[in-house]
Amino acid sequence: MKKTSKRLLLSGFALSLLIFLSGCVRQVNGKPTGTVWNLLGKPMSNLITYFAQNLGLGYGWGLVIVIVLVRLLILPLGLHQSRSAAYQAAKREHLAPIFEPINKKLKEATTQEEKMAAQTELMQANRDNGISMLGGMGCLPLLIQFPFFSAMYWAARYTPGILKSNFLWFNLGNRDIPIVAIIAILYLIQAWLGAQQMPEEQRKQAGMTMYMTPIIMVIFGFSQPSAVVIYWFVGGIFSIIQQLIANYIFKPRLRKQVEEEFKKNPPKAPKVSKSAPKDVTPKGPSKPTPAITSKKKNRNAGKQNRKKN
């Protein structure tokens, strides 16, 4: 049930992202318009046209060059996110002896009270040791990158002349199955590399959820012209490069940094209350004894009357 919820959540996020990319730019008389288009999309479109016509490179290579330039521009933000995620992963790996017993309690909990106690303990351990529940993925870098993604999407989709041009073996205005298959492979590689950064326990919990992005990319790839798929193709290559930097440059350095940090400030185990959780299971009503009580009262009253007499 939890895995299904995670998959639905990820699918919803991807769908929301596509809606965002489509919604922040609107069309008037078949032409894109809006703040994001005017500030970012239109200059990108003009640059594609410049490379394609003025330099004679064609729309395919013009599109690739502009996508590379945009991705290089926002690469520092992506690397910042990757570094933050790698830092959190290094912390979790170092704190595995603290988190493993808590996760075991959470799995083996049989009552709601036991689950709540384990969740409280887990949250306390995260808080005490500076672990982010979001894995270090800050919202601000993502929000800054979204307008660039949106503008590039629309520039690839609506630059005049781009959908009538050929590039390599395919037409940029038509759907091409081989290029869709290539982006699926690229995002599978990126997902696998991302999984290597997770602790073993977290990797098991993620399951197939981390491979949802390639599936979603294939679905979208079949509904979009190849010009847009080229945008995702270049993006996939950058994602792999970014993940390789995180796995093999950031993470080894951050492991040493985390070890030094916890040497100075040893990890804190959560304080667990020794008192057992209250049993709130409803119990059956106790058997009433009104007859016995009344008999006892009558006997006592009789004895008192005899003494008075």
Structure characterization notes:
It is found in: Cell membrane. Belongs to the OXA1/ALB3/YidC family. Type 2 subfamily. One of its GO terms (biological process) is protein transport. Its main location: membrane. With 309 residues, this protein is mainly alpha-helical. The protein has one domain. Helix 7 runs parallel beside helix 10. The longest helix is centred in the last third of the chain and has 39 residues.
Describe how the helices and strands are arranged.
Blueprint: H1 2-23, E1 26-28, E2 31-33, H2 35-54, H3 58-94, H4 96-108, H5 112-128, H6 139-158, E3 166-167, E4 170-171, H7 177-196, H8 200-206, H9 212-221, H10 226-264, H11 290-308
Antiparallel strand pairs: 1-2, 3-4
Helix pairs in contact: 2-3, 2-6, 3-6, 3-10, 4-5, 6-10, 7-9, 7-10
